[in-house]
Amino acid sequence: MKLGMTFFFGFMFSTLLAQFENIPISLSIPFDTDTIETVNPTFVWQCNLSAIQNDPRLSLQFALVKLETDQTPSEAIATNPTICFMDGVMSSSFSYPSALEPLEKGRSYVWQVRLLFNQQIVQVSEPWKFTIANPQLIRHQFIQARRKLDGSAYIISEPLLYIMIKNEGKNIDTNVWIVNASNEKQALKLKAVLVDEKQPSKLLSNFYFVADMSELDLENGNYTLKWEATKNEWLFINFQLN
């Protein structure tokens, strides 16, 4: 009899999980592996909020933990103590409470949102990590190289470019060119910059480089940095040299 009841409740719980697969939770802000400046961030996610608000048995749960060295986000969210936890969330955003200790500059964190049915977890988001920028470590304004150009250009007043790219776990190349308005290009050398000596490079949210353009003898004007980071994958920065 006990075996039959155990099977019945196991079947019912599996059915319950399947029922809520159509209410996925997708995290939005802060972006995964992003570096942010505020120590009291607002977290935003996407879900079927109307379904949750119209069913009193459903609620959301927010959890934030520190990411320790040599941990993956999944390991951190599963084992580390929560430094910010909120149960019964009924919206698609949550602001880090000012009553709590501000997040630490230079440290990485992992956050996750969960769907509960009668206080049982039936759906979870992916665990995303982010890092609080440390201005003492990043002394220059690093410009993020992007896959697409939006037409805007950064104003550069010196022949140095401080470049940031996201760490996506890939081996990256440093095939870089500076292209002028006439589509003439010149090769550019990059120098990697370690902005956080306490954290292994494989765990950094972003990679940082400095490019010295003084040897290219560029005139003032508009240019595009083209970076062949991996095969068939290009990154760009538009800039204006004054």
Topology:
Elements: H1 2-19, E1 26-29, E2 34-36, E3 42-46, H2 49-53, E4 58-66, H3 73-79, E5 82-89, E6 93-95, E7 108-117, E8 120-124, E9 128-132, E10 143-144, E11 154-156, E12 160-166, E13 175-180, E14 185-188, E15 190-193, E16 206-212, E17 221-230, E18 233-241
Parallel strand pairs: 2-9, 10-12, 11-18
Antiparallel strand pairs: 1-3, 3-6, 4-5, 4-7, 7-8, 7-9, 12-16, 13-14, 13-17, 15-16, 17-18
Account of the 3D structure:
The chain has 2 domains: 2-132, Immunoglobulins (Immunoglobulin-like, Sandwich); 143-241, Sandwich (Immunoglobulin-like), CATH 2.60.40. It is 12% helix and 43% strand. The protein is built from 3 helices and 18 strands. The strands form 4 sheets. Strands 2, 4, 5, 7, 8 and 9 form a 6-stranded mixed β-sheet that branches. The longest helix is centred in the first third of the chain and has 18 residues, at 2-19.
Q: Which features characterize this protein?
A:
six-stranded mixed beta sheet; mainly beta; Immunoglobulin-like; 242 residues; 18 strands; 2 domains; elongated; five-stranded mixed beta sheet
Radius of gyration based on Cα positions: 23 Å
CATH superfamily of the largest domain: Immunoglobulins
Termini gap: 82 Å
Our count of domains comes out at 2
CATH architecture of the largest domain: Sandwich
Q: Based on DSSP secondary structure assignment, what is the total number of beta strands?
A: 18
Order of helices and strands: HEEEHEHEEEEEEEEEEEEEE
CATH topology of the largest domain: Immunoglobulin-like
Structural class, judged by helices and strands? mainly beta
Output the CATH class name of the largest domain.
Mainly Beta
Helix content: 10-25%
Net shape:
elongated
Mean pLDDT, rounded to whole units? 80
Low-confidence stretches: 1-17, 197-203
Compute the number of helices: 3
